[in-house]
Amino acid sequence: xxxxxxxxDQVNVAEGNPLTVKCxxxxxxxxxxxxxxxxxxxxLQFLLKYITxxxxxxxxxxxxxxFNKSQTSFHLKKPSALVSDSALYFCAVRPPGSARQLTFxxxxxxxxxx
Amino acid sequence: xAGVIQSPxxxxxxxxxxxxxxxxxxxxxNSLFWYRQTMMRGLELLIYFNNNVxxxxxxxxxxxxxxxxxxxxxxxxxxxxxxxxxxxxxxCASTKxxxxxxxxxxxxxxxxxxxx
Lengths: 114, 116
Fold this sequence. Notes:
By secondary structure, chain A is mainly beta. Helices cover about 0% and strands about 50% of the residues of chain A.
């Protein structure tokens, strides 16, 4: 069975500092990995995904994520955080070839302090 | 594109009443998903459809929950009778056709349901 873990419920970072939101996964084969962001009272918005190829994936709003197969991780990163990045972030995984069912992590609340 | 459309955005009802949530997927998308989000359980997949056919409803919590997709542009999630523990935000999402599973799911704004 597939699973995804976000070990930190809350991440605080100062504006202008780099940020990292952690995600590890457990799935057979090479997974498809996704990051979504949820702002208050809004639906989930797609940020980026890893399907194949370059392990470093660039997405919306300056975010990027690195797929690390040996560590089964897909951490979300941004070089310089903005206060407006404060939101709830979800990592999700889907095994290749599966019918389109995503498994979501529990979410990490990111707070960027001015 | 208007994105995934859900209605109503907010619903307040009394225990025992029937609740119907509605979703219009993005035009051209052929898979549709219903999720429930709560503080305690996070984001849970309730059911998903492919080409209007329910594929996996194992996440539907009880027989009080039912979902239909009569055509490619409309789906409903019904709760009858509703209970206070059904209070949550319900999201609908859709994806383009494809068999690899790599397609992105696009989410609607959600319906916040409160059952008193």
